[in-house]
Amino acid sequence: MYCKKQREQVEFESFHLSFGGKLRSGNRWVRLAKLVPWAEIEGQYAELFDERIGAPAISARVAVASLIIKEKLGLSDEETVEQIRENPYLQYFLGYEAYTDEAPFDPSMMVHFRKRLNESILAEINELIVDRRRDRDQNHRRDKPADDHDGSGESGGGGGEKPGNAGMLLMDASCVPADIRYPTDLSILNEVREKTEAIIDRLHTPDVGKAEKPRTYRQRARKDYLAVAKKRRAGRKAIRKAIGKQLRYIRRNLRSINELAGRDRLSLLTHREYRNLLVCSEVYRQQKHMYENHLRSVPARIVSVSQPHVRPIVRGKAGTPVEFGAKISASKIDGYAYLDRLSWEAYHEGTDLQPRIEAYRGRFGCYPQSVHVDAIYRTRANRAYCKEHGIRISGPALGRPKNHRSAEEKRLTREDERKRIAIEGVFGRAKRAYSLSRIMAKRADTAETVIALAFLVMNLDTMLRHLFCLLSRLVFLSAQRLPTLPRSMNAVLSGSALAI
C-alpha cells in the first residue's frame, strides 16, 4: 500500500536542527532538491503499489533520493543509510522537516528500491528533468539581447518553431562490465561441478545413516582441475582433456541428482539451489555442445553461474577485446546524456541510428541538423536515410579518399571529430566518476537500474555545474559594477540561482 504525501518541500530556513543553526542555501543538496520534480515521481511510484492492501510503503521521495545519494557519493547500501542518518543536508534532500538521529530505513530496502524503480521509470524521470531544464534555458536565452546569445551549437531545436533541421545529435555505444571473475570454460565447469555436489549433499540429507550417498569423486575431480589451472601456460590439448574430465564428472552428478529427484526431494532445495540446478544443467549442455563440435562460442552463452544473464561482448578494444556485461547505447543532446538502449545480448549499434533520429524528431519537432557518430554507424542504409531527411552525417564519404582535400573540408572534418569526442567523454565520465566501471548489482533488473541511475545523476551534476557557473557569473558582473557587495545582495544572488 502506498500513501501519497500532500505536504510540499519545506524551505531550508524552516528545517529544524536540534543542535541549533540552519542550513546553508548554497549547499549542493539544497540546490539539487530544487531540480528534481518530486510530485511527478511520486505519481509514477504510487502506481507500483495496491492502495488497499499491505503496509504503508516508504515514500518515493526517500526511495529516489537515497538511490541518487548512493550513486553520487559512490557508497554501499549500509554506508548510504549511515550518511543519511548523520547528515542534515541529506535528510533535507530526502524531504524531512527536521533532523533526526535515527536511520531512515534498513539497508536491505535499497535492493527493493532498485527493483521498483526500473530502467524505464528512471529514463522517464531523466527526460522529465532534462526537458524542464532545457525549457528554462531556452526561455533564458530568449530573454537575452540578440548580441548576448551564447551561440551554442548543441541546441535541441525550438520545438517546431523552425521548419528546417536544427540541433546536433551525438551517439555511441559501450559495454558496462559486471562484477564477475574472468571466465574460462574450465573454471566455469569446476564451479558447476562444486554446486552439483552441494545439491547432492542436500538431497541425500534424509538418507544419512540409512543409505550410501552417490559417488561424486570430488577429491579426484579437484586434483584434475588444479593440475591444469595451476599451470602458467597450459596447452590446448591439456585444457581440452581437463574440460572433458570435468564434463564427465558433471554428467555423473546430474544423473545422481535425477535419481534423487525421483523420490520427490526437490522440495528440500532452497530457491537459490534450485536456480543453480537449472543454470548448471544449461551450462553443461552448452559446454558439451562446444566440446563435441570443437566450437568456441554458442548462442546465449552463460559465463557466470551466479549471474547467468551476463554475456560476453566482443569490443575489440586494446587490452580488453572481450568484456562481460551489458551493452548500452547513449546519445548526447544539448549537453545532456540519454540512455537509449540496454541489452545483455550483443547487437549491432548501427541499427540504433534511425530510431534515435526519429525519437529526436518526436521530442523537438524537427530532425537534427547533423549527426556525429563513429564509423560503425555510417552504413549505406543510414547514409541514405540521413540524405533523405537532409541530415549531415559526420565522417568521410564512401569510396576512395580524395588525393587533395580543400581547407574547408579539412576544417569540417576536424570540427566534426572534436564535437564527437563529447559522447566519448560521457562514457569516460560515467565509468570514472560513477559506478559504470563495474556494476556491483547481482540481479539483471537491479543492474539495469544502476546503469540508468548513473545517467540521471550525471545530468543532475551537469545542471548543478551550470547553476554554479551562472551564480559565479552573476557575482562577477555585480562586482564589476559595485566593488563591494552588501550581504543582502549575496542573498539575492543565491536566491536567483536557486530559482533558475
Q: Which outline best applies?
A: globular
Note poorly predicted spans. Answer: 146-162, 488-500
Rounded to an integer in angstroms, the radius of gyration calculated over CA atoms is 28 Å
The appropriate CATH architecture of the domain at 152-179 and 312-440 is 2-Layer Sandwich
Structural class: alpha/beta
**What is the first-to-last residue Cα distance?**
36 Å
Number of strands: 6
Give the amount of beta strand, in percent. 5-15%
Write down the CATH class of the domain at 152-179 and 312-440.
Answer: Alpha Beta
CATH topology of the domain at 152-179 and 312-440: Nucleotidyltransferase, domain 5
Estimate the mean pLDDT confidence.
Answer: 85
Summarize the biggest pleated sheet.
6 strands, mixed
- The helix fraction, in percent, is 40-55%
The string of secondary-structure elements, in order, is: HHHHHHHEHHHHEEEHEHEHHH
Give the count of helical stretches: 16
